Amino acid sequence: MGYAVVDVETTGLSPVRDRIVEIGVVLLDESGDPEGEWQSLVNPLRGMRAIFVHGLTNADVADAPTLADLLPRIRELLAGRALVAHNATFDVGFLNASFARAGYGMRIPREATVCTMELSKIYLPPGRHGLTAAAERAGVAMAERHRALADAHTAGLLRHYLNAEADGVRYAERAFSRSGEAVEPAAWIEARGAAAELSWPDFLF
Fold first, then answer.
1. CA 158, CA 122: separation in Å to the nearest integer?
2. CA-to-CA distance for 33 and 3, rounded, in angstroms?
3. Per-residue CA distances from 105 to 42, 59, 81 (Å)
4. 53 or 73, which is more confident
5. Beta bridge partners of 83
6. How many angstroms separate the Cα of 128 from the Cα of each of 55, 134, 172?
7. Which of 18, 22, 89, 146 could share a disulfide with 12, CB 3.0–4.6 Å?
8. In this predicted structure, what is the pLDDT of residue 62?
9. Pairing of strands 34-41, 175-176
10. What is the distance between the alpha carbons of residues 60 and 147, in angstroms, rounded to a whole number?
């Protein structure tokens, strides 16, 4: 089915202690062409902390739906698609923690994800791997930073990698994540296969 490029803004850095306050999703087909996008503020049901990062305040999210309220829509958007994010470990960690807290029996495995940060080590010239730096080297225009839908335009990075692979342009034949795991070229092919095999359960609430 293609890809769901995801970005979440949160109250902090810990999936255990902190909560999602905004989520953005950009849908791409298997060729990287856009199919749609969606975003929502999220009421974390606790005080806001990382205001200096995303600028969202308690007042901004007071009337927003909770993550549990949004799960049916999130399921609809993600099911069958490889999940793409810049530093995917962060975004997927928060999603999986949110699923667990809501009693939803679903966990997105690493095999079904694509990390554009790690792939920047293969498809971009040497340099910093943060989203802004990677986008600049790839020639991808960035909108407002640290808002979920703007950051989810990491989709442009994925399209750059897809085109680079098709043109035979690589700056390394393999990379390694921060945890030492190997990152292979065209990792999105395996991720799409793993995503297609995932069974998304029905909701229990």
1. 12
2. 10
3. 21, 31, 18
4. 73
5. 4, 113
6. 24, 7, 15
7. 18
8. 84
9. unpaired
10. 13
Amino acid symbol at 92: V
* pLDDT attached to residue 152: 67
In the predicted model, is pLDDT for residue 151 greater than 70? no
Per residue in 67-121, pLDDT (tens digit) is 999 999 999 999 999 999 999 999 999 999 999 999 998 999 999 999 999 999 9
Locate tokens 């750059």: which residue? Answer: 160
> Which residue in this structure is represented by tokens 């490889």?
82
Dihedral sign computed on CA atoms, order 123, 129, 134, 136 = negative
CB 188 within 8 A of CB 177: no
The two tokens of residue 163 are: 């085109």
CA distances from 49 to 3, 13, 46, 112 (A): 31, 10, 9, 30
- Helix ranges (H only) for the chain are 51-54, 58-61, 67-78, 88-101, 116-123, 131-138, 148-151, 155-166, 187-197
Q: Do strands 82-85 and 3-10 pair parallel, antiparallel, or not at all (unpaired)?
A: parallel
Amino acid at site 90: F
Rounded to whole angstroms, the Cα distance separating 143 from 125 reads 22
- Would the pLDDT of 199 be above 80? yes
